Amino acid sequence: MNRLSNGGFDGDLANWTASNGASFIASEGYKELGAVHLAAGQAISQSFYTPASCPWMIELWVKGGGSGNVTLTINDDNNNTVYTASIAVTPAWTQGHAVRVGLPMGHYTVTVSYADVACYVDDVSVARVDKTRAELALEVARLLGDLASADAGYSVAGDGERTEGDYTEAVDAGLRAVGAVDRAGRPDVRFLSDDIVDPCIDEIQRYMLHKLHRYYSRNATDFELEGRSEKPSQRRNAIENILGISVGGRRAASGRGVQQRRLIHGQ
Ligand SMILES: [Ca+2]
Question: Which pLDDT score is estimated for 26?
């Protein structure tokens, strides 16, 4: 859960303190319209409470017309700065910041301020996140190994809003499958509690295996290359075994659960 209220600027700057004319803009926003516009000398801030001493994920999204930076600062209740970051502004909405910061239980104030370029800021968040989207994608990429990376060339490298590259839709699907969604029903790792991390990874892996099955079904013409013994059809058949897919009247053996990972590593 986000420790900040109205971090997405849903309709106004409620719960935020705007300094020197920082203003709400209804026509801009990352996930949902509504953002804050920061120009020279302007800032927004909000107090929050951390109920546990642990790493807290500090995130925000940013967009601006020029190149420059906004500054994010966290002060404790003695007004000592405990964290500060300079965040690059880009022409498209970008997750400018996603860093875990250890904050002891207590009261803090987060401030986002103009540095040297007018910009929009949205989806400011301070939350406990056991696994980030990137970490989920990397974990599944590691489990799939060559099966996903070699021929299919699937990558976790982000590309604009496809923040986990070829794994983006799979991460969305995995989060939805275990109910890690925000109040608007969107996949959100802030709702991925510790006990549903493993089921989520299983679902992401399952989604990727279906995607890989489609890939190897399209590219199943066997070929021989020096030093390569694996054939696309073998990979397709292995995926069918893992998923228990019935193809062409054949019923492949079901191999869910623990067996699933062993089969994948056996590639
Ligand atoms: Ca918004």
Answer: 98
